[in-house]
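Provenance and format

Records in this collection were gathered into a single text stream. Each protein contributes a sequence line and a token line. The two records reproduced below are adjacent in the stream.
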Amino acid sequence: SKVLICVHGITRVGDDFDALAASLQDEYRVICPDVVGRGQSESLPNPQLYQIPQYVSDMVTLLARLNPQTVDWFGTSMGGLIGLILASMKNNPIRKLILNDVGPSLNFDGLKRIGDLISQDVRFDTFAQGVQFIREVSNSFGPHTEAQWEKLARDVLKQNADGKWIRHYDLGLAVPVQATTAETAAIGEKMLWAAYDAIRCDTLLVRGSESDLLSTATAQEMQRRGPHAK
């Protein structure tokens, strides 16, 4: 059967794709990994390695293990950047690429906001307080039902030994993001555009109208060059 790989955003987990996977399971084998440092995956001893090259190399290993002829790739935010790099490589197996709210140009202020958010060592006495926090930081995700907000929170919060609810990822994820400067961001952007221009597969871009990460200008540029994203 066809294989679909779904990769989540920077502080999220593979469970984000539960509803999508359930609806596509007749047509696809759906693989939704927790990227290293998140959810069920282990942490890295050196937090400096929480960067796209490490994630790409982990996914190359996963693809080798799955050994499919072709795969379709659905990447949200960080998961989209991982797919973008993979799709730019020679002889890669990606047949169709969906980039969800991400592109080669990332808003530097948006990145800084995310870095600050990731590093907060928040602890909640009750799950309800945790849900409220996730609602506030995920406000730009748009309207959700109460049950959907609760699931968004349950997937990324866990109880520690003291019974407090904490975030289900290694806080070290923030280290490389916070170390990003305007200069290093510009170099990274150049490399991402070069990778984007090398993509040959069908590419679909999804952009939230209120996104502070992916600008309208970048989305338009992505339609003009590289794989000419739809």
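Adjacent record:
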Amino acid sequence: PVDELKQMKILFVAGGVGTAPVYPQVKWMKEHGVKVDCIIGARNKDLIILEDDMKKVAENLYIATDDGSYGFHGNVNDCIKDLVHNQHKSYDLVVAIGPIIMMKFVCLLTKELNIKTIVSMNPVMVDGTGMCGACRLTVGNEIKFACVDGPEFDGHLVNFDEAMKRQQLYKSEEGKVQLRDAEGATHHHPGCSCHDEH
């Protein structure tokens, strides 16, 4: 509920093109009177997108570049540490969207800081139906499919190492076959029609 959101201190962390799906969420928050902070991170200044748009909707916008060419010198995790430790900011919720490796390290940090974290696992999605098995994840002790069960999950429960390994394997036909054979019936979402064929 919006009233609950208004009581929370929320930080959005956008990595690279992850800024595109973060922007409409931050805009919605602004339109509903919810003040949120946002970090946009990229390797360098040239890769920063939607900065002007985000400035209009975020309460506080922080830019972080790995090479220090613009804004805070460091990655998004370095920026989070600076906000919490040096600027004495506190957050109830972090929403992180970007490359899987970025989300993994944000979650490792926020777990240390005891901040609930939601991640969007859309980088592993391919067909959006659960048929291809590309977005199969382990979340807690359960098998989930980002396209039909998510894509938002509790970041502290996502097995990012498995997701990254799977993403690499899925790039080749051999890898797809290897995953399908190893995972059997759990390779696809239980609700997809492809189970009728196997």
